[in-house]
Amino acid sequence: xxxxxxxxxxxxxxxxxxxxxxxxxxxxxxxxxxxxxxxxxxxxxxxxxxxxxxxxxxxxxxxxxxxxxxxxxxxxxxxxx
Length: 81
Known about the structure:
0% strand, elongated
């Protein structure tokens, strides 16, 4: 069974999309059982949707989007400690 740390890392990086059948089933099972990871995953999905909307509304240049993504990933990696 995947641990919370593994699930949150997979969710934050979208790597769960590339998991094999069994690992993807473990990921989904963990989300069904763990309300904390379920909430985190939901927040990650919402942030992605909002970021796409914001980027469509404001013609942000590629460098700015890369900086934003780097800042988000640094924040997520820092919260693991």
